[in-house]
Amino acid sequence: MRIVDFRGKWCAVVHVGGKRFRRSLGNLDATPDNYPAAQRACADLERAIAQPKSDTIADIVDAYLADTKAITSEYMRWMWGVLKPHCAGLRPDQIDRGWCREYASKRGKAPATIRKEISFLAAAIRWAKGDAGGGAVFELPSPPPPRDRWLTRPEFMRLLDAAQPHPHLVTFLHLALATGARKEAILELTWPQVDFSAGRIFLGNKPGGKARAVVPMTKSLRTVLQAQNQRREDSGYVVEYGGAKVGNIKKAFATAARNAGLDDVTPHDLRHTAAVWMAADGVSMEKIAQYLGHSDHKITERVYARFSPDHLKDAAAALEI
Predict the structure, then answer these.
(1) CATH number for the domain whose boundaries are 153-307
(2) 205 — pLDDT class (breaks 50, 70, 90)
(3) Is the predicted pLDDT of residue 83 greater than 90, yes or no?
(4) What is the pLDDT of residues 260-293, one digit of tens each?
(5) Where are the domains of the chain?
(6) CB 89 within 8 Å of CB 58
(7) Which burial class, exposed, middle or buried, applies to 50 when counting CB atoms under 10 A from its CB (0-12, 13-18, 19+)?
(8) Where does the record place the Tyr recombinase domain (predicted)?
């Protein structure tokens, strides 16, 4: 949907069912001063068009994905593909604890996976029906214990050595450790986001549009990126393979981890590792939170304060005899 000037009035051009329509945005004169109001009216129109065609789960989720297209990921669409055979023709009030338990049993996946899928379904229904959820009742499996794996420096060097046959993985590992960024942000990183003159890396925007962190470039990362920049091909992405963007690092990472004797390590553990190393070196929780892009340093403190060298030392001092 886009806003156009039609006969001196702002209106929206809408494409529905392969056909093009013009819709009024409230008789607004096509002036710059009225453009913000036209944008708001256009957003209201998009929401109205996106409303479900019927009360079935299928129409509700399809409308939800269309309305949230700015933040919809391929993983969300994949989850809907998994859920669809189990609930497409149901109404929200037919989703209850019994359905949730039956779904979990039939899926036969880990509790964390089931939680994500049912939570996605709940978000779609509440988007359409409000907090009451149209009578839907959800039950989630108990959350798994938090993962607490991080790499020591010798372990990271072993992983780095095992990655040498795969230059794109070497670049990824250096970026993951030095930026503390999530896998998705690293694989989306393009060269204009790397500022060699200022020594900074802008990690881009999240799917919803919110900016991620801007982090300093370490000396070791600068060396790696400058070498990569000289031999880069034409994909535009910092992490590339065969002149194309790397869609997923999982296979190469798993191979290197296995060869390094680190079978229990995942790409996300490198973000955890970066935070642990900073905390252990005495970096404040506020700075670590900024580095990781946490909106509240209390989140960071809850997870990483125990790695700080001074953590609870004053409390222990009170117990001296």
Answers:
(1) 1.10.443.10
(2) confident
(3) yes
(4) 999 999 999 999 999 999 999 999 999 999 999 8
(5) 2-49, 57-135, 153-307
(6) yes
(7) middle
(8) 146-317
